[in-house]
Amino acid sequence: MQNMMEFNFLVGKKTFITLLDMLNGYWSIPIEDSSKHLTGFRTHRGQYQWNVLPFGLGNAAATYQRAMSKVAQTVSDFACAYIDDLAIFSDTWEEHINHLKEIFKRLEHFNFSVNLGKCEFARQKVKYLGHVIGSGRHSPDKERIKAIQNLQAPTSKKQLRSALRLCNFYRQYIPNFAKIALLLTELTKKKVPNEIPWSKEAENAFKELKTALCGITELWN
C-alpha cells in the first residue's frame, strides 16, 4: 500500500476527482466456512457466528484494505483505495465518466455497494486524507490546522509526542521542519523526565512550529 503523500500527489494532480464511500464495506466480505467458528459469540438468545467480516477482528482492517486494493488493482492509473476511501481521478470529463463506469463494474463484481450520501462526484477540489487536493494543488485541511493552532503547551512527554505527531503530518509544507522541531524532539527522549522541563527556548520553538504550520499556503504538484 502506498503512503498517504503518494496518494495525495497521485490524485491531486488531476482535474476531476470522485471519492466513493462504501456502504457497510466490511459486510461485503464473506468469511470462509472453515473460519466462521472463530467469530462465534454467545448471547441470552443463543450462540451465533459471523458469515461476513465484522468490525473489531484483529486482522479486519488489513483484510478490508486488501479487498479494496483488488478493486483498483488493474486500474491504478485512475483509481486508488486507501482504507475506506476509493478515489477515481481523471484529466478530462470524458475520461472521468469512462473511469467511473469501469469502477462501478468492478465494485459490482466484488460485491461492494456505495453510500451515495457520503460520496463526492467529479469535484475539482476535495478533502482527502487530511489534505485539500485537486487541479494540481494541495494544502492542509483547515480544520486540522485550526486544531494545531489551538494546541496548548504540553506538560508531559506523552502530550509533546502527540503534538509533534500532529505537526509532523504536514512537515512537507514547512522548510527546515526538522531544525525547528529539534529542541522539542530532544525533550521526548528517554533521558528526559515524563514531566518535561518546559523552558523559554522550548516555548519559543513550539510557537515557531505552530506559526509556520498556520501560515501554510497552497502548493503545486
UniProtKB/TrEMBL annotation:
Domain Reverse transcriptase: 1-133
One term of GO molecular function: RNA-directed DNA polymerase activity
Coiled-coil region: none
Alphabetical list of CDD domains matching this protein: RT_LTR
Gene3D superfamilies the record matches: 3.30.70.270, HIV Type 1 Reverse Transcriptase, subunit A, domain 1 (3.10.10.10)
EC number of the protein: 2.7.7.49
Official protein name in the record: RNA-directed DNA polymerase
Species per Swiss-Prot/TrEMBL record: Trichonephila clavipes
Gene name for this UniProt entry: pol
